[in-house]
């Protein structure tokens, strides 16, 4: 069961989910992706022996109303505030998708707080497809944020049509339900569009993520999804050798099911345990 708390950060409070009690077991700090929330870790966390702490990043989930500045360095600082508030000196830090970039910047700027780093289909530089600008690349992610849904069931139907979510399960349902704000029939995503735009530019072009990547040890664990964001055969990282880290491709997973599918969740949990 998840315990939810709030941690003071500049501009307000960051909502934090936690699985397990903070005891002598090594804690895991889990950092979600660009339009996700802490329940993206809902299948991984129960498989980890020790406690898992997962914030809703600034501009997402229960932290959706927090103002900027955004960017990887701001999220890393918020994550350190979470560790401070919970009395955690060092944690195993795992980040998925954009969370991988946040995790890398966290390790670069605050190395004393990171016992070990695990990157999950994110954190290594990503090139935009030839001829595609930032606005075009953002299109599918941003479109959902302006949509309205008549009910939770309608939002479920929207996600069920996503090619990466054909294997529907209770963890996915909880994850998408938590993303909703407002009241029927005007439900909407909690994600702040300004945060997504700022973070997307930073992870692609920002100096901080590039410097953090350049500083990574070559034996840093990188779990790569076999398939892409829309379950297409081409992965988000098509060439494992270009990543330059200790890459393991997790078979049968796409960019989402590497967390929210059984096989992917087991692989991620094993890597952080």
UniProtKB/TrEMBL annotation:
Mention any Pfam family matching this sequence.
Abhydrolase_1
* Gene3D superfamilies in the cross-refs: alpha/beta hydrolase
UniProt superkingdom: Bacteria
Write out the entry's keywords from A to Z.
Hydrolase
The cross-references to InterPro entries, in alphabetical order and at most eight, read:
AB_hydrolase_1 (IPR000073), AB_hydrolase_fold (IPR029058), AB_hydrolase_sf (IPR050266)
Kindly list the residue ranges recorded as spanning the membrane.
none
Domain AB hydrolase-1 spans what residues? 26-149
Q: Which GO terms describe its molecular function?
A: hydrolase activity
In the UniProt record, does the keyword Chloroplast occur? Answer: no
Q: Does the keyword Hydrolase apply?
A: yes
* Name of the featured protein: Alpha/beta hydrolase
């Amino acid at each position: 069961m998840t315990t939810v708390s709030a941690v003071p950060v500049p501009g307000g409070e960051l909502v934090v989910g936690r699985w397990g009690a903070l005891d002598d077991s090594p804690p895991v700090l889990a950092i979600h992706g660009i339009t996700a929330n802490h329940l993206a870790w809902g299948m991984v966390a129960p498989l980890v022996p020790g406690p898992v702490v997962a914030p809703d990043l600034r501009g997402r989930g229960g932290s959706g109303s927090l103002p900027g500045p955004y960017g990887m360095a701001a999220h890393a600082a918020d994550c350190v505030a979470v560790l401070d508030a919970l009395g955690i000196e060092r944690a195993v830090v795992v980040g998925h998708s954009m969370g991988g970039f946040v995790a890398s910047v966290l390790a670069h700027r605050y190395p004393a707080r990171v016992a070990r780093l695990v990157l999950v289909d994110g954190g290594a530089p990503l090139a935009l497809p030839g001829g595609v600008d930032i606005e075009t690349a953002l299109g599918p992610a941003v479109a959902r944020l302006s949509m309205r849904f008549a009910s939770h069931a309608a939002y479920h139907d929207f996600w069920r049509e996503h090619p990466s979510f054909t294997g529907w399960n209770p963890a996915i349902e909880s994850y998408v339900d938590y993303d909703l704000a407002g009241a029927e029939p005007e439900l909407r995503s909690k994600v702040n569009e300004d945060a997504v735009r700022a973070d997307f530019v930073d992870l692609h072009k920002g100096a901080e993520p590039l410097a953090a990547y350049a500083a990574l040890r070559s034996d840093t664990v990188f779990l790569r999804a076999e398939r892409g964001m829309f379950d297409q055969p081409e992965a988000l990282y098509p060439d494992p050798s270009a990543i330059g880290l200790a890459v393991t491709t997790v078979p049968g997973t796409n960019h989402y099911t590497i967390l929210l599918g059984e096989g992917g969740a087991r692989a991620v949990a094993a890597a952080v345990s």
